[in-house]
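Listing S7. Sequence submitted for prediction.
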Amino acid sequence: MVAANRLPVVLHREAAEVRITPSSGGLVTAMHPVLGERGGTWIGWPGDTSGLSAARVEEALHAVSEEQGFDLVPVTLSEELRQCYYDGFANATIWPLFHDLQGRCRFDESYYKGYVEANRRFAREIARRTEKGDLLWVHDYHLMSVAHQLRQQRVALRTAFFLHIPFPASDIFLKLPWRRQLLRHLLDFDFLGFQTQRDRRNFLGCLVDLFPRFTISKTGVMHSVTREKRNTRIGVFPIGIDAAGFEKLSGEAAVREMEREIRESYAGRRLFLGVDRLDYTKGIPQRLHAFERALERFPHLREKVTLLQLVVPSREDVEGYAPLREEIERIVGHVNGRFTSGNWVPVVLMVRSVSRERLIALYRAACAALITPLKDGMNLVCKEYCAVKTENDGVLILSEFAGAAAQLYKGALLVNPHDMEGMARSIEAAATMSPAEQERRMKRLRRNVARHDIHWWVSGFLSAASERGMRRKIDPAAFVAYPQLCEEEWL
């Protein structure tokens, strides 16, 4: 059973009818093919169902379940509760805090109370659908208190949790007023999974600072935390994509035709591509300034390169996102005002969603992908870009603060998104890189993405979540040396 904030589909009421559209986001992209292959149950919010009876919602989701091959179970929330839980604590408190942007956090007691109540409602719906011995796999920062709520309801269930976003260092996490409660709620899960070694190291560092009496043990690549006769096992599992599925789709005739049209539109110019949700963690303004700096520093790039920045609208009701869009549009206008000449426009901005086929065509047509978040749990866009480059051409420019950098650093050009000069030099290097060097790097990237795909991730996580037993105790007093104790090679 999978529990996540959203179902993989969203219900919309239109007059007397119910319209169903696919959900967006990395979690849906990652988990949908897994449940489609293995079966199971997905519990989540179905969208705004006000005005729809519970029976009508169940009927609509039953039809989708039959089609998808797994069950969909709705958790309905009032608009007021959803604002506190989702817009408030999840996205105005946890999201910026866990991305090291504590200046954007809003610490509101009502947000936290709403978050706990929403998690209680998820737990109640889960309890109705499970039997003793079932495995519940909870996803991401929206539902970190679900296991605690299940224990409060005395539900006997094996529970595992995976955090898709980064976990912050202790000095940042300690700013959260409910820091102790949240850590204890996480430790009510039987198993915890993180994207990178850094995330797990940060989590354990917070435990050492706040709960020094807890025992941390290690066997092989797995860790364990023991407290009050309970044990929580902790692992690192960098998420992958359905690499084979993306590669197969990239060969379809419709995709190749779109690719041909895109290449013709930018004939004679090298196309750089940025693909991001509208979010302040993605570093889009910094990327645009770096592209401007590259045009300043390297005049030979002018009229030879174009940056196509695709921005997918997201969380538009969350405070701070509308000003971000205005800032992006202002910077694009400034860069184009400075450098546009003839029929060459240096930056093309697209603020909209595109089909998967269109996205793959853009990946294939682009000579380089600029994936430069300020911080990211993993970032699957960079892996999708590599998966569809079947001719082994193209260059990946990747932020060193994306979780994917730990896997892809040997083939990508790593950059610091705060370093305008460094990013400008990497843009110039990508624009002038020889075909042989591109092929060498892309082959390495594609091997990694194919080997560590979504099925590898799921199998590894579920296998680890089902094992038990830890041995070697780690002395918290020696925690300053902890980074050397947990460096595993994932390549």
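Caption to Listing S7: primary sequence and predicted structure tokens for the chain studied. Residues 243-451 form a domain with the Rossmann fold fold (CATH 3.40.50.2000). Confidence is low (pLDDT under 50) at residues 468-491.
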